[in-house]
């Protein structure tokens, strides 16, 4: 007799299991959300030594506040919000800059919002030589992303790597969707400037 695959545990079921004292269920919650938490902590916090403690603090807060989760957003989004706020508190305590206030506003924010951010790395299958070039380009791009202010790095990671929607990013960061779009526009503009500067240095 064939067995149908077991349907995945829903957010509601998982939370109920954790609150019911099932230790393994909390481990599943961590596995389900650790990719997002890792992106947030790694993009917002530059000091590697502080990252494990912050990630642990995030999940301690999740466990402590789980009974108050009202399912007004996805569980992963709620955990991401806790991670973002934990990192934000760290940056504020260290008096570190989250975004560059001197960065000029986008030339046309409304147009930027309509277009949406393009893919950071191009497309379909390539031949080996092109794939190698793509790998080099991805490395250069990754280095440029790491030079962005923490907020821009974080938004780029959430949108392009975690593939979250503007709405989900707004829920995590408590930023309006329009602000998320504009900051992503600024981040891409900075990346373009720094990538062009890198190529110009290489051509000298």
Automatic annotation (TrEMBL):
Domain RNA polymerase sigma-70 region: 29-95
CDD domains: Sigma70_r4
A Pfam family it matches: Sigma70_r2
Secretion signal span: none
Domain (RNA polymerase sigma factor 70 region 4 type): residue spans on this chain: 140-191
Keywords tagged on the record: Sigma factor, Transcription, Transcription regulation
Source superkingdom: Bacteria
UniProt xrefs under InterPro entries: RNA_pol_sigma-70-like (IPR039425), RNA_pol_sigma-70_dom (IPR014284), RNA_pol_sigma70_r2 (IPR007627), RNA_pol_sigma70_r4_t2 (IPR013249), RNA_pol_sigma_r2 (IPR013325), RNA_pol_sigma_r3/r4-like (IPR013324), WH-like_DNA-bd_sf (IPR036388)
Transmembrane segments: none
PANTHER family to which the protein is assigned, alphabetical: RNA POLYMERASE ECF-TYPE SIGMA FACTO, RNA POLYMERASE SIGMA FACTOR
Family: Belongs to the sigma-70 factor family. ECF subfamily.
Name of the protein in question: RNA polymerase sigma-70 factor (ECF subfamily)
